């Protein structure tokens, strides 16, 4: 059974088996979220930089490995950018407010594994841009985070909305993957969503959420 060793700062407890447990009294200003948002906006204003950073299968095979991570920061059009960055700022900002560590771990893992999933699972896709895969995972991370704070251990009817929201979101992505049809995006756009990346983001979000959940439970035992 781990023992509490000291209070590191108001709102955080350090113990032998984890670095810290975010407590409701302690919040973080979302400067990481805002910094990433600013970088994305700047890249969108510099087309040559966007081309140098985008996921490019041929370039990656020739050693330009940074594109595996930076491709998520690039976008095809202003409307593509608008919706991606709006969702990212809202979801990531709230997550960082409660746990910057969880946000950073998720972004690092999702940036790499989502590109790897596209690279392996969609061999016909030569170029990929956008934050939507990360946004999908952020939605799940935030949903689980709110569930843990508000509904865990309560009656089934109080837990049901979280289950329904998660299931509908996952079902939407599966539908788009199986039918090659989009529910909310105009097919006349210059780009089309990549449902496989959305599903990948959902699973990565679940894995990261479960790891942090398990860490918190271990520290409370």
Structural summary, described in words:
It contains 9 helices and 5 strands; from the N terminus they run E-E-E-H-H-E-H-H-H-H-E-H-H-H. It has helices at residues 31-44, 47-53, 57-61, 67-70, 78-98, 100-121, 132-150, 156-179, 195-220, and strands at 4-9, 12-15, 21-22, 55-56, 127-128. A hairpin with a 5-residue loop joins strand 2 (12-15) and strand 3 (21-22). It is mainly alpha-helical and 221 residues long. Helix 1 runs antiparallel to helix 5, helix 5 (78-98) packs parallel to helix 7 (132-150) and helix 7 runs antiparallel to helix 8. The strands form 2 sheets. It has a 3-stranded antiparallel beta sheet.
What would you say about this model in short?
It contains 9 helices and 5 strands, in the order βββααβααααβααα. It has helices at residues 31-44, 47-53, 57-61, 67-70, 78-98, 100-121, 132-150, 156-179, 195-220; strands at residues 4-9, 12-15, 21-22, 55-56, 127-128. α5 runs parallel beside α7 (132-150) and α7 (132-150) runs antiparallel to α8.
């Amino acid at each position: 059974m781990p023992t509490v060793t000291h209070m590191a700062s108001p709102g955080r407890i350090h113990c032998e088996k984890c670095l810290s447990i975010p407590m409701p009294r302690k919040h973080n200003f979302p400067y990481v979220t805002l910094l990433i948002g600013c970088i994305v906006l700047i890249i969108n204003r510099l087309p040559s930089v966007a081309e140098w950073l985008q996921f490019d299968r041929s370039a990656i095979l020739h050693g330009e490995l940074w594109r595996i991570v930076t491709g998520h920061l690039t976008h095809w059009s202003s409307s593509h950018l608008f919706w991606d960055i709006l969702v990212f700022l809202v979801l990531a900002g709230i997550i960082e407010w409660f746990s910057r560590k969880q946000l950073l771990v998720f972004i690092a893992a999702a940036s790499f594994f989502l590109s790897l999933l596209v690279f392996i699972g969609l061999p016909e896709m030569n170029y990929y841009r956008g934050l939507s895969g990360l946004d999908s995972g952020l939605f799940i991370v935030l949903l689980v985070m709110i569930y843990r704070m508000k509904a865990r251990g309560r009656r089934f009817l109080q837990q049901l909305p979280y289950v329904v929201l998660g299931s509908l979101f996952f079902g939407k992505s599966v539908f788009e993957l199986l039918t090659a049809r989009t529910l909310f995006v105009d097919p006349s756009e210059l780009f089309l969503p990549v449902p496989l990346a959305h599903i990948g983001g959902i699973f990565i979000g679940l894995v990261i959420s479960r790891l942090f959940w398990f860490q918190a439970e271990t520290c409370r035992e």
